[in-house]
Design goal:
By secondary structure, the protein is of the alpha+beta class. 30% of the residues lie in helices and 20% in strands. It binds dihydroflavine-adenine dinucleotide (FDA).
Length: 511
Protein backbone atom coordinates (compact mmCIF):
# COMPACT_ATOMS: atom_id res chain seq x y z
CA UNK A 1 0.00 0.00 0.00
CA UNK A 2 1.03 3.64 -0.52
CA UNK A 3 2.23 5.57 2.51
CA UNK A 4 -1.00 7.55 2.57
CA UNK A 5 -3.11 4.38 2.48
CA UNK A 6 -0.95 3.05 5.31
CA UNK A 7 -1.50 6.17 7.43
CA UNK A 8 -5.27 6.02 6.72
CA UNK A 9 -5.16 2.44 7.95
CA UNK A 10 -3.26 3.50 11.08
CA UNK A 11 -5.79 6.28 11.64
CA UNK A 12 -8.72 3.88 11.54
CA UNK A 13 -6.85 1.42 13.70
CA UNK A 14 -6.22 4.21 16.23
CA UNK A 15 -9.94 5.08 16.21
CA UNK A 16 -10.85 1.44 16.82
CA UNK A 17 -8.57 1.32 19.84
CA UNK A 18 -10.26 4.36 21.40
CA UNK A 19 -13.86 4.49 20.20
CA UNK A 20 -16.49 1.69 20.17
CA UNK A 21 -16.28 0.07 16.73
CA UNK A 22 -20.03 0.34 16.11
CA UNK A 23 -19.57 4.13 15.95
CA UNK A 24 -16.97 3.93 13.14
CA UNK A 25 -18.19 3.70 9.55
CA UNK A 26 -15.87 3.01 6.60
CA UNK A 27 -16.86 2.61 2.95
CA UNK A 28 -15.14 -0.75 2.49
CA UNK A 29 -16.75 -2.68 5.29
CA UNK A 30 -19.72 -4.81 4.30
CA UNK A 31 -21.07 -4.60 7.86
CA UNK A 32 -21.11 -0.82 8.08
CA UNK A 33 -23.81 1.34 6.59
CA UNK A 34 -21.34 4.04 5.50
CA UNK A 35 -23.49 5.48 2.70
CA UNK A 36 -26.63 5.58 4.85
CA UNK A 37 -24.83 7.45 7.63
CA UNK A 38 -23.11 9.82 5.20
CA UNK A 39 -26.36 10.69 3.43
CA UNK A 40 -28.46 10.88 6.62
CA UNK A 41 -28.01 14.65 6.99
CA UNK A 42 -26.95 15.81 3.52
CA UNK A 43 -29.35 18.76 3.35
CA UNK A 44 -28.33 19.97 -0.10
CA UNK A 45 -29.01 17.04 -2.44
CA UNK A 46 -26.48 18.44 -4.97
CA UNK A 47 -23.79 16.75 -2.91
CA UNK A 48 -25.32 13.29 -3.12
CA UNK A 49 -23.67 13.11 -6.57
CA UNK A 50 -21.04 10.41 -6.90
CA UNK A 51 -18.48 13.00 -8.03
CA UNK A 52 -18.52 14.45 -4.49
CA UNK A 53 -15.22 13.93 -2.61
CA UNK A 54 -16.25 11.80 0.36
CA UNK A 55 -14.61 11.10 3.73
CA UNK A 56 -12.54 7.96 4.34
CA UNK A 57 -14.53 7.33 7.49
CA UNK A 58 -17.32 8.74 9.68
CA UNK A 59 -17.33 8.58 13.46
CA UNK A 60 -20.77 9.02 15.02
CA UNK A 61 -19.56 10.20 18.41
CA UNK A 62 -21.74 9.88 21.51
CA UNK A 63 -19.35 11.39 24.03
CA UNK A 64 -16.81 14.23 24.15
CA UNK A 65 -14.04 11.67 24.75
CA UNK A 66 -14.72 10.20 21.29
CA UNK A 67 -14.17 13.64 19.73
CA UNK A 68 -10.91 13.96 21.66
CA UNK A 69 -9.76 10.53 20.47
CA UNK A 70 -10.64 11.34 16.84
CA UNK A 71 -8.59 14.56 17.00
CA UNK A 72 -5.59 12.80 18.56
CA UNK A 73 -5.71 9.94 16.03
CA UNK A 74 -6.09 12.46 13.19
CA UNK A 75 -3.19 14.60 14.32
CA UNK A 76 -0.88 11.61 14.76
CA UNK A 77 -1.69 10.14 11.34
CA UNK A 78 -2.09 13.31 9.27
CA UNK A 79 -5.83 12.91 8.64
CA UNK A 80 -7.92 16.10 8.81
CA UNK A 81 -11.38 16.08 10.37
CA UNK A 82 -14.57 17.85 9.36
CA UNK A 83 -17.25 18.33 12.01
CA UNK A 84 -20.88 17.78 11.12
CA UNK A 85 -23.82 18.62 13.38
CA UNK A 86 -26.98 19.12 11.31
CA UNK A 87 -25.46 18.87 7.80
CA UNK A 88 -27.18 22.06 6.57
CA UNK A 89 -24.03 23.73 5.23
CA UNK A 90 -25.07 25.25 1.89
CA UNK A 91 -21.84 24.10 0.25
CA UNK A 92 -21.71 20.75 2.06
CA UNK A 93 -18.35 21.49 3.70
CA UNK A 94 -19.19 19.44 6.80
CA UNK A 95 -19.01 16.18 4.84
CA UNK A 96 -17.32 16.85 1.49
CA UNK A 97 -14.15 18.45 0.22
CA UNK A 98 -14.06 20.54 -2.94
CA UNK A 99 -10.56 19.34 -3.81
CA UNK A 100 -9.37 15.74 -3.55
CA UNK A 101 -8.33 15.37 0.10
CA UNK A 102 -8.14 12.67 2.74
CA UNK A 103 -10.39 13.51 5.65
CA UNK A 104 -12.77 11.94 8.13
CA UNK A 105 -16.10 13.24 9.46
CA UNK A 106 -16.87 13.60 13.15
CA UNK A 107 -20.66 13.43 13.11
CA UNK A 108 -22.26 14.88 16.24
CA UNK A 109 -25.92 14.08 15.40
CA UNK A 110 -26.14 11.60 18.27
CA UNK A 111 -24.63 13.97 20.80
CA UNK A 112 -27.75 15.98 21.51
CA UNK A 113 -28.63 16.21 25.17
CA UNK A 114 -30.36 19.41 26.30
CA UNK A 115 -30.22 20.20 30.03
CA UNK A 116 -32.11 23.16 31.44
CA UNK A 117 -30.79 24.80 34.56
CA UNK A 118 -33.24 26.88 36.58
CA UNK A 119 -32.23 28.53 39.82
CA UNK A 120 -34.24 30.80 42.08
CA UNK A 121 -32.45 34.06 41.36
CA UNK A 122 -30.68 33.76 38.00
CA UNK A 123 -32.26 33.73 34.51
CA UNK A 124 -32.63 30.13 33.29
CA UNK A 125 -29.86 28.68 31.13
CA UNK A 126 -29.44 25.46 29.17
CA UNK A 127 -26.53 23.28 28.11
CA UNK A 128 -27.25 22.08 24.58
CA UNK A 129 -25.06 19.62 22.72
CA UNK A 130 -24.04 20.49 19.15
CA UNK A 131 -25.92 17.58 17.58
CA UNK A 132 -29.32 18.79 18.80
CA UNK A 133 -31.47 20.59 16.24
CA UNK A 134 -32.88 24.04 16.96
CA UNK A 135 -36.36 22.45 16.78
CA UNK A 136 -35.44 20.08 19.61
CA UNK A 137 -34.06 23.03 21.56
CA UNK A 138 -37.26 25.09 21.10
CA UNK A 139 -39.47 22.14 22.06
CA UNK A 140 -37.49 21.19 25.16
CA UNK A 141 -37.05 24.73 26.42
CA UNK A 142 -40.67 25.85 25.96
CA UNK A 143 -42.10 22.69 27.48
CA UNK A 144 -39.94 23.20 30.55
CA UNK A 145 -41.89 26.34 31.49
CA UNK A 146 -45.41 26.09 32.91
CA UNK A 147 -47.09 28.28 30.25
CA UNK A 148 -44.60 27.97 27.37
CA UNK A 149 -42.87 31.26 28.15
CA UNK A 150 -39.25 30.11 27.93
CA UNK A 151 -37.64 30.42 24.51
CA UNK A 152 -34.40 30.82 22.59
CA UNK A 153 -33.54 33.02 19.57
CA UNK A 154 -32.26 31.01 16.59
CA UNK A 155 -33.10 30.19 12.96
CA UNK A 156 -36.48 29.46 11.42
CA UNK A 157 -35.73 26.06 9.87
CA UNK A 158 -36.17 23.59 12.72
CA UNK A 159 -33.74 20.91 11.46
CA UNK A 160 -30.67 23.19 11.68
CA UNK A 161 -27.90 21.66 13.77
CA UNK A 162 -26.97 23.71 16.82
CA UNK A 163 -23.23 23.09 16.17
CA UNK A 164 -22.94 24.72 12.76
CA UNK A 165 -25.76 27.23 13.27
CA UNK A 166 -24.31 28.75 16.46
CA UNK A 167 -20.79 28.63 15.00
CA UNK A 168 -21.91 31.07 12.30
CA UNK A 169 -24.05 33.38 14.47
CA UNK A 170 -27.67 32.28 14.18
CA UNK A 171 -30.14 34.83 12.83
CA UNK A 172 -33.86 34.34 13.33
CA UNK A 173 -37.26 35.82 14.05
CA UNK A 174 -36.42 37.04 17.56
CA UNK A 175 -33.09 38.70 16.72
CA UNK A 176 -34.50 42.23 16.86
CA UNK A 177 -35.63 41.55 20.43
CA UNK A 178 -32.96 39.18 21.75
CA UNK A 179 -30.10 39.21 19.23
CA UNK A 180 -28.42 36.32 17.46
CA UNK A 181 -28.06 32.90 19.05
CA UNK A 182 -24.43 33.73 19.84
CA UNK A 183 -25.39 36.93 21.64
CA UNK A 184 -26.92 34.55 24.19
CA UNK A 185 -24.10 31.99 24.49
CA UNK A 186 -22.42 32.21 27.91
CA UNK A 187 -20.11 29.17 27.91
CA UNK A 188 -19.05 26.33 25.61
CA UNK A 189 -17.06 23.09 25.59
CA UNK A 190 -14.63 22.68 22.72
CA UNK A 191 -12.10 20.04 21.71
CA UNK A 192 -9.03 21.88 20.43
CA UNK A 193 -6.33 20.85 17.95
CA UNK A 194 -4.44 19.03 20.74
CA UNK A 195 -7.48 16.98 21.66
CA UNK A 196 -8.01 18.90 24.91
CA UNK A 197 -11.56 19.51 26.14
CA UNK A 198 -11.84 23.18 27.17
CA UNK A 199 -14.62 25.25 28.71
CA UNK A 200 -14.78 29.04 28.57
CA UNK A 201 -12.44 29.57 31.52
CA UNK A 202 -9.88 27.14 30.08
CA UNK A 203 -10.05 28.36 26.46
CA UNK A 204 -9.82 32.05 27.36
CA UNK A 205 -11.84 35.01 26.14
CA UNK A 206 -10.22 35.37 22.68
CA UNK A 207 -11.10 31.85 21.59
CA UNK A 208 -14.52 32.09 23.24
CA UNK A 209 -15.11 35.27 21.22
CA UNK A 210 -14.05 33.59 17.97
CA UNK A 211 -16.30 30.54 18.23
CA UNK A 212 -19.39 32.72 18.68
CA UNK A 213 -19.92 33.49 15.01
CA UNK A 214 -16.51 33.04 13.36
CA UNK A 215 -17.89 30.16 11.25
CA UNK A 216 -17.75 26.40 11.72
CA UNK A 217 -14.68 24.18 11.61
CA UNK A 218 -11.88 26.72 12.15
CA UNK A 219 -11.07 26.57 15.87
CA UNK A 220 -11.93 23.08 17.05
CA UNK A 221 -15.02 20.97 17.53
CA UNK A 222 -17.61 22.47 19.84
CA UNK A 223 -19.31 19.71 21.76
CA UNK A 224 -21.75 21.73 23.83
CA UNK A 225 -23.01 25.30 24.37
CA UNK A 226 -24.40 27.00 27.45
CA UNK A 227 -27.10 29.48 26.48
CA UNK A 228 -29.11 32.11 28.31
CA UNK A 229 -32.82 31.47 27.74
CA UNK A 230 -35.26 34.30 27.13
CA UNK A 231 -38.80 34.98 28.30
CA UNK A 232 -41.66 35.37 25.82
CA UNK A 233 -45.31 36.23 26.54
CA UNK A 234 -47.87 33.39 26.72
CA UNK A 235 -49.38 34.58 23.43
CA UNK A 236 -47.59 35.75 20.27
CA UNK A 237 -49.01 36.74 16.87
CA UNK A 238 -47.97 35.57 13.42
CA UNK A 239 -49.15 37.61 10.43
CA UNK A 240 -49.29 35.86 7.07
CA UNK A 241 -50.03 38.26 4.21
CA UNK A 242 -49.45 37.79 0.48
CA UNK A 243 -49.46 40.65 -2.04
CA UNK A 244 -49.13 40.51 -5.81
CA UNK A 245 -48.00 43.29 -8.14
CA UNK A 246 -51.63 44.30 -8.71
CA UNK A 247 -52.13 44.48 -4.95
CA UNK A 248 -49.35 47.03 -4.58
CA UNK A 249 -46.47 44.75 -3.61
CA UNK A 250 -43.84 47.19 -4.94
CA UNK A 251 -45.08 50.07 -2.78
CA UNK A 252 -45.27 47.90 0.32
CA UNK A 253 -41.73 46.61 -0.21
CA UNK A 254 -40.33 50.09 -0.83
CA UNK A 255 -41.74 51.41 2.44
CA UNK A 256 -41.08 48.15 4.33
CA UNK A 257 -37.31 48.68 3.97
CA UNK A 258 -37.45 51.73 6.21
CA UNK A 259 -40.22 50.58 8.55
CA UNK A 260 -39.11 47.03 9.40
CA UNK A 261 -35.68 47.93 10.88
CA UNK A 262 -37.11 50.78 12.98
CA UNK A 263 -40.26 49.17 14.39
CA UNK A 264 -40.45 48.24 18.10
CA UNK A 265 -38.01 45.40 18.71
CA UNK A 266 -40.68 42.85 19.60
CA UNK A 267 -41.86 42.67 16.00
CA UNK A 268 -39.91 40.95 13.25
CA UNK A 269 -41.19 41.56 9.72
CA UNK A 270 -39.64 38.97 7.42
CA UNK A 271 -40.36 39.04 3.66
CA UNK A 272 -40.14 36.28 1.08
CA UNK A 273 -40.52 37.12 -2.60
CA UNK A 274 -41.51 34.14 -4.71
CA UNK A 275 -40.41 34.32 -8.33
CA UNK A 276 -42.54 33.17 -11.22
CA UNK A 277 -40.28 31.53 -13.81
CA UNK A 278 -41.44 31.83 -17.40
CA UNK A 279 -43.83 29.18 -18.52
CA UNK A 280 -45.38 28.69 -15.07
CA UNK A 281 -48.89 29.72 -14.14
CA UNK A 282 -48.02 31.45 -10.86
CA UNK A 283 -47.36 35.18 -10.59
CA UNK A 284 -44.69 36.93 -8.57
CA UNK A 285 -45.90 37.10 -4.97
CA UNK A 286 -44.54 38.90 -1.93
CA UNK A 287 -45.16 36.98 1.26
CA UNK A 288 -44.98 38.89 4.56
CA UNK A 289 -44.40 36.80 7.67
CA UNK A 290 -44.35 38.87 10.86
CA UNK A 291 -43.78 37.56 14.36
CA UNK A 292 -44.95 39.84 17.15
CA UNK A 293 -44.22 38.94 20.77
CA UNK A 294 -47.68 39.93 22.04
CA UNK A 295 -51.30 40.04 20.94
CA UNK A 296 -52.79 41.21 17.64
CA UNK A 297 -54.63 44.13 19.23
CA UNK A 298 -51.41 45.47 20.70
CA UNK A 299 -49.52 45.73 17.40
CA UNK A 300 -52.06 46.00 14.57
CA UNK A 301 -52.61 49.80 14.92
CA UNK A 302 -48.81 50.36 14.69
CA UNK A 303 -48.54 48.22 11.54
CA UNK A 304 -51.51 49.98 9.96
CA UNK A 305 -50.08 53.42 10.64
CA UNK A 306 -46.43 52.67 9.70
CA UNK A 307 -47.11 50.43 6.71
CA UNK A 308 -50.54 51.54 5.41
CA UNK A 309 -49.85 50.18 1.90
CA UNK A 310 -50.02 46.64 3.29
CA UNK A 311 -53.68 46.96 4.34
CA UNK A 312 -53.16 44.53 7.23
CA UNK A 313 -56.31 43.61 9.13
CA UNK A 314 -57.23 41.52 12.14
CA UNK A 315 -58.04 38.66 9.77
CA UNK A 316 -54.29 38.36 9.02
CA UNK A 317 -53.48 37.65 12.69
CA UNK A 318 -52.83 34.19 14.08
CA UNK A 319 -52.41 34.11 17.87
CA UNK A 320 -50.67 31.14 19.49
CA UNK A 321 -47.87 30.24 21.91
CA UNK A 322 -44.30 31.04 20.88
CA UNK A 323 -43.55 27.32 20.55
CA UNK A 324 -46.53 26.89 18.22
CA UNK A 325 -45.29 29.85 16.20
CA UNK A 326 -41.98 28.08 15.49
CA UNK A 327 -43.95 25.18 13.97
CA UNK A 328 -46.42 27.48 12.21
CA UNK A 329 -43.74 29.56 10.49
CA UNK A 330 -41.96 26.45 9.29
CA UNK A 331 -44.75 23.99 8.49
CA UNK A 332 -47.88 26.16 8.24
CA UNK A 333 -49.62 24.50 11.21
CA UNK A 334 -49.19 24.49 14.98
CA UNK A 335 -48.39 20.82 15.55
CA UNK A 336 -45.27 21.18 17.68
CA UNK A 337 -44.21 17.52 17.60
CA UNK A 338 -42.96 18.24 14.06
CA UNK A 339 -40.13 20.16 15.72
CA UNK A 340 -38.66 16.81 16.76
CA UNK A 341 -38.63 15.43 13.21
CA UNK A 342 -35.06 15.51 11.93
CA UNK A 343 -35.81 14.22 8.44
CA UNK A 344 -35.66 16.48 5.40
CA UNK A 345 -36.79 15.91 1.82
CA UNK A 346 -34.70 16.19 -1.36
CA UNK A 347 -33.63 19.74 -2.06
CA UNK A 348 -31.20 21.02 -4.69
CA UNK A 349 -30.13 24.64 -4.23
CA UNK A 350 -27.51 27.36 -4.56
CA UNK A 351 -27.77 30.42 -2.31
CA UNK A 352 -26.02 33.79 -2.04
CA UNK A 353 -26.40 36.69 0.39
CA UNK A 354 -26.11 40.46 0.69
CA UNK A 355 -26.67 43.23 3.24
CA UNK A 356 -28.51 46.49 2.56
CA UNK A 357 -27.65 49.70 4.41
CA UNK A 358 -29.41 52.19 2.07
CA UNK A 359 -32.96 51.61 0.91
CA UNK A 360 -33.44 50.50 -2.69
CA UNK A 361 -35.50 52.82 -4.93
CA UNK A 362 -39.06 51.92 -5.95
CA UNK A 363 -38.07 51.79 -9.63
CA UNK A 364 -35.45 49.15 -8.82
CA UNK A 365 -37.94 47.04 -6.84
CA UNK A 366 -40.26 47.26 -9.84
CA UNK A 367 -37.47 45.98 -12.08
CA UNK A 368 -36.62 43.20 -9.58
CA UNK A 369 -40.20 41.98 -9.38
CA UNK A 370 -41.20 42.34 -13.01
CA UNK A 371 -37.93 41.35 -14.68
CA UNK A 372 -35.54 39.40 -12.43
CA UNK A 373 -38.14 37.36 -10.58
CA UNK A 374 -40.03 36.56 -13.77
CA UNK A 375 -37.01 35.10 -15.56
CA UNK A 376 -36.39 31.56 -16.54
CA UNK A 377 -34.76 29.84 -13.54
CA UNK A 378 -35.86 32.45 -11.01
CA UNK A 379 -36.16 31.34 -7.40
CA UNK A 380 -36.93 33.28 -4.26
CA UNK A 381 -35.39 36.07 -2.21
CA UNK A 382 -35.73 36.38 1.56
CA UNK A 383 -35.31 39.70 3.37
CA UNK A 384 -34.60 39.73 7.11
CA UNK A 385 -34.76 43.10 8.89
CA UNK A 386 -32.07 44.05 11.39
CA UNK A 387 -32.15 47.02 13.80
CA UNK A 388 -33.39 46.64 17.38
CA UNK A 389 -31.15 44.51 19.63
CA UNK A 390 -29.18 42.87 16.79
CA UNK A 391 -28.23 46.30 15.46
CA UNK A 392 -27.29 47.70 18.86
CA UNK A 393 -24.49 45.24 19.63
CA UNK A 394 -21.04 46.78 18.91
CA UNK A 395 -19.43 45.46 15.70
CA UNK A 396 -16.50 43.92 17.54
CA UNK A 397 -18.51 42.26 20.33
CA UNK A 398 -18.80 39.04 18.31
CA UNK A 399 -17.41 38.09 14.86
CA UNK A 400 -20.82 38.93 13.24
CA UNK A 401 -20.00 42.39 11.89
CA UNK A 402 -23.34 43.24 10.25
CA UNK A 403 -24.75 45.32 13.09
CA UNK A 404 -25.35 49.08 13.34
CA UNK A 405 -26.73 50.62 10.15
CA UNK A 406 -27.84 47.38 8.49
CA UNK A 407 -31.45 47.69 7.29
CA UNK A 408 -31.84 44.04 6.26
CA UNK A 409 -30.07 41.17 4.60
CA UNK A 410 -31.05 39.47 1.37
CA UNK A 411 -30.80 35.80 0.69
CA UNK A 412 -31.06 34.66 -2.93
CA UNK A 413 -32.24 31.08 -3.34
CA UNK A 414 -32.00 29.22 -6.65
CA UNK A 415 -33.43 25.72 -6.61
CA UNK A 416 -34.22 22.92 -9.00
CA UNK A 417 -35.57 19.37 -9.01
CA UNK A 418 -33.77 16.05 -9.33
CA UNK A 419 -32.81 15.46 -12.94
CA UNK A 420 -33.20 19.11 -13.97
CA UNK A 421 -30.39 21.06 -15.61
CA UNK A 422 -29.08 23.05 -12.64
CA UNK A 423 -27.36 25.62 -14.85
CA UNK A 424 -30.59 27.56 -15.56
CA UNK A 425 -31.20 28.29 -11.87
CA UNK A 426 -27.50 28.87 -11.12
CA UNK A 427 -27.12 31.28 -14.07
CA UNK A 428 -30.16 33.17 -12.78
CA UNK A 429 -28.77 33.58 -9.26
CA UNK A 430 -25.32 34.55 -10.56
CA UNK A 431 -26.60 37.24 -12.90
CA UNK A 432 -29.15 38.58 -10.42
CA UNK A 433 -26.40 38.81 -7.77
CA UNK A 434 -24.21 40.73 -10.26
CA UNK A 435 -27.06 43.15 -10.95
CA UNK A 436 -27.71 43.70 -7.23
CA UNK A 437 -24.08 44.68 -6.58
CA UNK A 438 -24.83 48.35 -7.22
CA UNK A 439 -27.59 48.51 -4.55
CA UNK A 440 -26.05 46.63 -1.62
CA UNK A 441 -23.03 47.15 0.65
CA UNK A 442 -19.67 47.54 -1.09
CA UNK A 443 -16.00 47.38 -0.02
CA UNK A 444 -16.55 44.86 1.32
CA UNK A 445 -19.73 43.50 -0.20
CA UNK A 446 -21.01 41.91 2.99
CA UNK A 447 -22.23 38.31 3.18
CA UNK A 448 -23.39 36.01 5.99
CA UNK A 449 -21.10 33.10 6.83
CA UNK A 450 -24.00 30.77 7.64
CA UNK A 451 -25.27 31.34 4.09
CA UNK A 452 -22.02 29.89 2.83
CA UNK A 453 -21.09 30.74 -0.75
CA UNK A 454 -17.83 29.45 -2.19
CA UNK A 455 -18.07 31.85 -5.16
CA UNK A 456 -16.89 34.74 -2.95
CA UNK A 457 -13.49 33.13 -2.41
CA UNK A 458 -11.72 30.01 -1.22
CA UNK A 459 -8.51 29.39 0.68
CA UNK A 460 -5.24 28.60 -1.04
CA UNK A 461 -3.10 26.12 0.90
CA UNK A 462 0.67 26.70 0.74
CA UNK A 463 3.11 24.49 2.69
CA UNK A 464 0.11 22.75 4.24
CA UNK A 465 -1.33 25.96 5.72
CA UNK A 466 -4.22 28.13 4.38
CA UNK A 467 -2.83 31.54 3.47
CA UNK A 468 -4.02 34.71 5.17
CA UNK A 469 -4.23 36.60 1.86
CA UNK A 470 -6.52 34.04 0.25
CA UNK A 471 -8.74 34.00 3.34
CA UNK A 472 -8.96 37.77 3.44
CA UNK A 473 -10.81 37.80 0.09
CA UNK A 474 -13.89 36.01 1.44
CA UNK A 475 -13.20 36.63 5.16
CA UNK A 476 -13.70 40.40 5.06
CA UNK A 477 -17.05 39.88 3.36
CA UNK A 478 -18.25 37.61 6.15
CA UNK A 479 -16.58 39.36 9.09
CA UNK A 480 -15.52 42.88 8.06
CA UNK A 481 -12.91 44.28 10.41
CA UNK A 482 -13.27 41.24 12.68
CA UNK A 483 -11.55 38.96 10.15
CA UNK A 484 -8.00 39.87 11.18
CA UNK A 485 -8.77 39.24 14.85
CA UNK A 486 -10.22 35.83 13.95
CA UNK A 487 -7.03 34.98 12.01
CA UNK A 488 -4.91 36.07 14.97
CA UNK A 489 -6.87 33.79 17.32
CA UNK A 490 -6.49 30.96 14.81
CA UNK A 491 -2.73 31.59 14.69
CA UNK A 492 -2.56 31.13 18.46
CA UNK A 493 -4.79 28.08 18.89
CA UNK A 494 -4.20 26.11 15.66
CA UNK A 495 -1.05 27.47 13.97
CA UNK A 496 -0.55 24.34 11.83
CA UNK A 497 -4.08 24.70 10.42
CA UNK A 498 -5.32 21.27 11.45
CA UNK A 499 -9.00 22.28 11.45
CA UNK A 500 -9.64 23.53 7.97
CA UNK A 501 -11.88 23.62 4.98
CA UNK A 502 -12.19 25.78 1.85
CA UNK A 503 -13.41 28.73 3.93
CA UNK A 504 -11.87 28.19 7.35
CA UNK A 505 -10.11 31.07 9.11
CA UNK A 506 -6.40 30.95 8.11
CA UNK A 507 -3.79 31.34 10.87
CA UNK A 508 -2.15 34.77 11.10
CA UNK A 509 1.17 34.08 12.76
CA UNK A 510 2.75 36.83 14.83
CA UNK A 511 6.39 37.35 13.79
P1 LIG B 1 -23.27 21.46 9.26
O1 LIG B 1 -23.22 20.27 10.13
O2 LIG B 1 -23.29 21.24 7.78
O3 LIG B 1 -22.08 22.44 9.66
C1 LIG B 1 -21.88 23.70 9.07
C2 LIG B 1 -20.43 24.15 9.27
O4 LIG B 1 -20.10 24.18 10.66
C3 LIG B 1 -19.41 23.22 8.64
O5 LIG B 1 -18.27 23.95 8.26
C4 LIG B 1 -19.06 22.28 9.78
O6 LIG B 1 -17.79 21.67 9.62
C5 LIG B 1 -19.11 23.22 10.97
N1 LIG B 1 -19.52 22.55 12.20
C6 LIG B 1 -20.62 21.77 12.39
N2 LIG B 1 -20.68 21.37 13.66
C7 LIG B 1 -19.62 21.89 14.29
C8 LIG B 1 -19.15 21.79 15.63
N3 LIG B 1 -19.80 21.08 16.54
N4 LIG B 1 -17.99 22.42 15.96
C9 LIG B 1 -17.32 23.14 15.01
N5 LIG B 1 -17.73 23.27 13.74
C10 LIG B 1 -18.87 22.64 13.38
N6 LIG B 1 -29.10 30.28 9.21
C11 LIG B 1 -29.55 31.27 10.03
O7 LIG B 1 -28.76 31.94 10.68
N7 LIG B 1 -30.89 31.49 10.16
C12 LIG B 1 -31.82 30.75 9.49
O8 LIG B 1 -33.02 30.96 9.64
C13 LIG B 1 -31.35 29.72 8.61
N8 LIG B 1 -32.22 28.95 7.88
C14 LIG B 1 -31.75 27.91 7.11
C15 LIG B 1 -32.64 27.08 6.42
C16 LIG B 1 -32.16 26.01 5.67
C17 LIG B 1 -33.14 25.12 4.95
C18 LIG B 1 -30.77 25.77 5.58
C19 LIG B 1 -30.24 24.62 4.75
C20 LIG B 1 -29.88 26.60 6.25
C21 LIG B 1 -30.35 27.68 7.00
N9 LIG B 1 -29.47 28.52 7.69
C22 LIG B 1 -29.96 29.51 8.51
C23 LIG B 1 -28.03 28.33 7.57
C24 LIG B 1 -27.46 27.51 8.74
O9 LIG B 1 -27.39 28.31 9.89
C25 LIG B 1 -26.06 26.98 8.39
O10 LIG B 1 -26.12 26.16 7.27
C26 LIG B 1 -25.46 26.24 9.58
O11 LIG B 1 -24.08 26.15 9.42
C27 LIG B 1 -26.05 24.88 9.73
O12 LIG B 1 -25.55 24.19 10.83
P2 LIG B 1 -25.52 22.58 10.78
O13 LIG B 1 -24.92 22.11 12.04
O14 LIG B 1 -26.86 22.08 10.40
O15 LIG B 1 -24.57 22.35 9.53
Amino acid sequence: PSSSAASDGCFIQCLRENIPSELIFTPGSSKSNFTGVLESTIRNSRFLANTTVRPICIVTVTDASHVQAAVRCGRTNGVHLRARSGGHDYEGLSYRSVRPETFAVVDLANLRTITIVTTADEPPTAWVDSGATVGELYYTVANKSSNNTLAFPAGVCTTLGVGGHFSGGGIGSMMRKHGLSVDNVVDAKLVDANGELLDRAAMGEDLFWAIRGGGGESFGIIVSWKVRLVRVPPKVTVFHITRTLEQGAVDVLTNWQHVAPTMPDDINMEVLVQGAPQGQQQQVAVFFQFLYLGTCDDILPTIVSCLPELNATKADCNEMTWLESTAFMNFGDTNTTQLLDRSTGPNFFKNKSDYVRRGIARSVWLEILTKWLAMNGSGIIILEPHGGFVGSVPTGATPYSHRSGVLYNIQYVASWSAGDDSSVAIDWVDSFYDFMGQYVTKSPREAYVNFRDLDIGQNTVVNDVSTFDSGKVWGEKYFGSNFERLATVKGKVDPTDYFRNEQSIPPLLQS
